[in-house]
Amino acid sequence: MSQVQSYYARGQYSKAISLLNQLLQKPQQIEPVTIHSNLAEIYRHLGQYSREIAHWKAAIESIPTQKDRLEKPQLIVLSKLKVDLARAYIHLGQASLAIPLLQESLDLAKQTQKPEIENAAQKALGNAYKIAGEYDRAIIAYTNSLDKIQNPETTTRILNGLVDVYQLRSQQYITEARGAD
Fold first, then answer.
1. Which of 32, 38, 40 is nearest to 56 (CA)?
2. Of 10, 112, 115, 116, which has the fewest beta carbons less than 10 angstroms from its beta carbon?
3. Which class for 134: exposed (0-12), middle (13-18), buried (19 or more C-beta within 10 A)?
């Protein structure tokens, strides 16, 4: 994996992808969830969201289960992967696919007591609701996310999302008011 990271850091994405695809043929060396996650990250960086989505899905499907029961570490990984997959859908404007994933991720994050994943899911949920035009729900999700933030950069991003939503909602009200005349 260090060679993959080296290629990635130098911007040699095709070499990193090739090496990761070779590693997929030898799953005993590295877990498939790790390989697919790395491929998804590369494709996200390249803006190839359909390929990114395929690899997030493969990563999720590769998580081993025992009699439909997942241990806490697996639940944490699953929760994070669902946020990542949802973000890819959001990039494509497919909020209807992202929202259920984010709600599942929130449930898992609460169950595993992982506030950082819960926060990431809330923020992404705000983005998804904003895209879906569900501005009141977006405001609630962003506000819930703000309650758990301690990083100023992330706080700024969330506040920017809130400003966008309030502007969109304001425009919606103006349009409705003009239509009532």
1. 40
2. 10
3. middle
